[in-house]
Structures are given as structure tokens and as C-alpha cells.
Write a structure and sequence with these properties.
Layout (H helix, E strand, L loop, with lengths): L1 E8 H13 L5 E6 L6 E9 L4 H11 L3 E6 H4 L8 E6 L2 E7 L7
Antiparallel strand pairs: 1-3, 1-6, 2-3, 4-5
Helix pairs in contact: 1-2
This protein binds ligand 2BA.
The site of ligand 2BA has 11 residues, from strand 5.
Length: 106
């Protein structure tokens, strides 16, 4: 078994949740906050059998979309004063795939 940690934009999280349930994946969805934009996102914790990792990643890929956001440089560095907008590409999903030593349910 592996653990997928998938950080997705809030706009995609409901659709991802629906697709994962439909395809029989188990997961926990946590509210989270991006350190850079300081805006809400969702972190999905998924325990997934090795042979289903690719299928899980395909579901995540199909539900999560890249979006362009603009922030001012003063948003990023408040001490810099008002500056030009900076383009930032957010998402689709940031995924970490971790080994799981042991999995038990009681
Ligand atoms: P945020 O930290 O709010 O970052 C949002 C987007 O801002 C990032 O999109 C990236 O395009 C940009 N960005 C982040 N840090 C930057 C920096 N120092 N300079 C310039 N641009 C920067 P994504 O890369 O798609 O990341 C989306 C969210 O995924 C992040 O939200 C964060 O919550 C998470 N994330 C991304 N990389 C991570 C990592 N290495 N470890 C943990 N969480 C990560």
C-alpha cells in the first residue's frame, strides 16, 4: 500500500470527491491553506493499493485543473509596496506518493 497526499484547489475538490467515491477509492479530505497564496485548498489523504496508484492518479488528473491567478508583488512581499501583478499558475493537483509501512483498521 502507498499513501497519496493530493493538494487540490477548493474549486476542484467536490468533483474529485464525487469521482473518487464513484470509483471506489477511500480517502480523507482535510481543509488546508496554501503557504504562498494563503488561500483555501483541500488535502486528500488516500491509502491506495500499489496496483491502483495509476488509476487513482488518473482520477485526480481528470478532476483537477490548472488556473491562472494574478497577485500583486505587495501581496507576496508586503514590504515592497504596490507593484505589478504577478501571474501564478495554480494546480491542477500537487501529489506526493509515500510508502506505507503498515496499515491496520480496528
Ligand atoms: P500555494 O502555496 O498557495 O501556492 C500556489 C501557487 O503559487 C503554486 O501552485 C505556485 O504556482 C505558486 N507559488 C508557490 N510558491 C511560490 C514561490 N515561492 N514563488 C513563486 N510562485 C510560487 P502549485 O505549485 O500548483 O501549488 C498549489 C498548492 O499546492 C500550494 O499552494 C501548496 O498548498 C501546495 N504545494 C505545492 N508545492 C508544495 C510542496 N513542495 N510542499 C507542500 N505543499 C505544496
Amino acid at each position: 500500500m502507498k499513501m497519496i497526499l493530493a493538494i487540490v484547489q477548493d474549486k476542484d475538490s467536490q468533483q474529485l470527491q464525487t469521482k473518487l467515491v464513484k470509483d471506489g477509492f477511500r480517502f480523507t479530505r482535510l481543509p488546508s491553506t496554501g503557504g504562498f497564496l494563503k488561500s483555501g485548498n483541500s488535502t486528500f489523504i488516500m491509502g491506495v493499493e500499489e496496483e491502483k496508484i495509476d488509476a487513482a492518479l488518473e482520477v485526480i488528473k481528470s478532476a483537477c485543473h490548472t488556473r491562472t491567478q494574478y497577485v500583486t508583488s505587495s501581496f507576496v512581499l508586503p514590504e515592497s509596496g504596490i507593484g505589478d501583478p504577478v501571474e501564478v499558475q495554480v494546480g491542477g493537483a500537487t501529489c506526493f506518493i509515500l510508502p506505507v509501512d503498515k496499515f491496520v483498521r480496528f
